[in-house]
Amino acid sequence: MKGKIIVIEGTDCSGKETQSKLLEKYFNEKQVKCIRMSFPAYDTPTGKIVGGPYLGKKEICDSFFEEGAALVDPYISSLYYAADRKYCISRVMEYISKGYIVLLDRYTTSNMAHQGGKIDNADERFRMYQWIDKLEFWLLNLPKPDITIFLHVPYEYSYELKKNRESLDGHEKSGDHLIHAEQAYIELSQLYHWEVIECVQDKKIKTIDQITQEIICLLKEKGID
After folding, report:
1. What is the share, in percent, of the chain residues with pLDDT greater than 70?
2. The 3-state secondary structure of the chain, one letter per residue
3. Is this model's pTM higher than 0.90 or not?
């Protein structure tokens, strides 16, 4: 049986890593073959290039871009992320061929949102989405996800959550970048018909368990259980 790719996307501080880990645990406890991977893969050569020279994560190295990652031309930035996925994709395909559910914490969709968000003009931004789609899915032959789940936390809530973080990368340091990325995520969720989980209800952030249960219910409705 061919496996499936489930992408967990989300705005800043939406809990992508936490939820993908909990989903992996959920499937493994049900004895469903499942593996979790994250992009960028910071432990790979290509991931280290993204994490250090581009984003400037302090545990790797300072950014080589004096203007900061948030101001780097989006077409240039996109190539670094696409290269990391291409470098790692054979492992994803191996698990897919063995019938695994592959949970991806971020994917091509992150590239579209964070780089597309740098472009103000709607027509140019749409062309950017198409360019990344063609680059990664056609030219690099990366597999398309079976389902993309978008966790939405509005920026004003993520800003409060982020105050406790000790280390921020070049994107996370820029409030303007994160606001524009959020807008792009919402736009993309409508264009590509992603499944959307609103993580804030009645002006309160939902609990981790509430969000997990919503995701599980959504997957059950899609016949993935």
Report:
1. 93
2. CCCEEEEEEECCCCCHHHHHHHHHHHHHHCCCCEEEEECCCCCCHHHHHHHHHHCCCCCCCCCCCCCCHHHCCHHHHHHHHHHHHHHHHHHHHHHHHCCCEEEEECCHHHHHHHHHCCCCCHHHHHHHHHHHHHHHHHHCCCCCCCEEEEEECCHHHHHHHHCCCCCCCCCCCCHHHHHHHHHHHHHHHHHCCCEEEECEECCEECCHHHHHHHHHHHHHHCCCC
3. yes
